[in-house]
Fold this sequence. Notes:
Chain A is mainly alpha-helical. Chain A is built from 11 helices and 4 strands, in the order ααααβββααααβααα.
Amino acid sequence: MEYFTQQLINGVTLGAIYALIAIGYTMVYGIIGMINFAHGEVFMIGAFISIITFLLLGLFGITWAPFAILVALLATMALTPLYGWALERLAYRPLRHSPRLAALITAIGMSIFLQNYVQLVQGARIKPLQSLVTGGIEIMQRGDFVVTLGYMQILIVVLTVVLMAAFTLLIQRTALGRAQRACEQDLKMAALVGVDVDRTIAATFVMGAALASVAGLIFLLYYGVVDFFIGFNAGIKAFTAAVLGGIGSLPGAMLGGLLIGLIEAFWSAYFSVEYKDVAAFTVLVMVLIFRPTGLLGKPDIEKV
Amino acid sequence: MAGARGGSRNDPAPDGTGALFREAGLAGLLVFGLAAALVGVRVQDGAASAIAPLAFRFDDAFTAAAAAALGRLGVALLRAGLAAPVLAGGTAVAFAVALAQVFFPAHPLLLALLFDTAMPNWLVALFAGFLALAAGWRLRHAPLAIVSETAAREAAMDRIGAEVQRWARYAGPLIFLLALALPLMPFADRRLVDVAILVVTYIMLGWGLNVVVGLAGLLDLGYVAFYAIGAYAYALLAKYVGLSFWLCLPFAGIMAAFAGLLLGFPVLRLRGDYLAIVTLGFGEMIRIILLNWYQFTGGPNGVSGVPRPSFFGLPFTESPPEGGHSFHTFVGLFWPLSISPTAKFS
Lengths: 304, 346
């Protein structure tokens, strides 16, 4: 029971990261029907901008955790979306009316490009960061085994929940959110009734990138390391989460992220750490084969 | 579709110099925003991080922004029909950057003005040269209407494609003969032959991918998994079962084919993006399993000491075994040692 609780806590924390990235995938897929493979790399760039901000603050002697995290959050949420925007503008918009494969392959190409770009400018080695938030609350205990709810984990979950609430409000209440929902239903019709489709799609990429950058910050704080290759694994896991929840559905992305996080945590705890990725991918394959619309997806999803 | 493609270029045509410079300025600003953190600041690692955790290269970020602004200005001018200044400016920039890179690569002023590494500088010079060429082409030929630019480009690409296909018919057999003769050429050293073998391997991979993606139209992103299965099938069968290369050759193919069958039955219900994702996941799974199943595959260390192919017991080695023959001595395929191209292989 104690072990189970600890894994539950770990899984929810991991799931929060996946859910934040998955939203970017699901929104882009919902609107232009494209898998943005470079989204994981945007997450990685968010993590890098965060570590740079932390180290810069450290040079000025600012190590008070709440302030440092706030500044890093603002910096990464300001700079990373530029990558999302540039990606859409330079790589995807010219191909919007091309065959689907062209866009997909371009996205893979951009993913490789961004990976190599970061490897080139920041080096290939793993970059460590001293942990800023340590300690936690001891919930229960049996013998030597103490179930700890780290302050970091609380911070992660609170941050994720706040962001998702804000994001849901944005989608449901603002004019931009209305435009996005219109574009998701029918791009051409939305354009006919006066929605600026290009701007809406660009805004979608910017919002997705902002959420992914927060996920990058969280990843950096939680694991304390970052390198140029973290985007691939996190991206494909988050995509799995989006598919599991039903791609195109926002609550689905959150649920899927949570489920993938839990599956990974429990698989590593009870079976084997090495094959946790295999477990996640098996779930992906199973979902796609038996229920391609995912858990919360719309049943009329295009199954071409 | 064609109309939509033309409409996707929806930038308002810049009507004045103000608009031109604003477009260029925005591009520069965007690139500065992109580069400020990642290019401008480098997280140090290893021994360097003990001295200073960060290294600063803000001059490179500024260079990137300036290059982007200039390049965008050139493109915008070209689109506005002002080819002459682009020709002059592009030529000047291309030559200036290239000459500076060749003659004063370490001059402090140039290090401040240009990128610190050579490659991006060459890219800048290349792009400036390309713009100048495009401008020159525009000046010589009748100015095209802006609407038909895409169509003209596609027509040109189609022409080039047709030309390439026409030449490929004659070039194909010629390249095949060249490939056969390559190991016997006097300039063929070990490195060249290795690269040539890599080329042939990729050609074979491309053939296989063409069957799946090209002919069947299924985007299989996990295709390399079969490459891995074939390689491991040969390595493990040859090393632990002791089968010869010629037996393993069909076996490895059959095994990879069975893996394909295993994957194919469930995923063929899917189409398009879903198929791409499932195959991507499958490829990843194979990679993870091969890396982690340590007892079976050797994990990240791989399988070493795989027996090399032989021809009815005759090894393909340069020096024949003691008292025996190797393939080339047996069939008399050897040269006097002085001009032997294979002497370079050792």
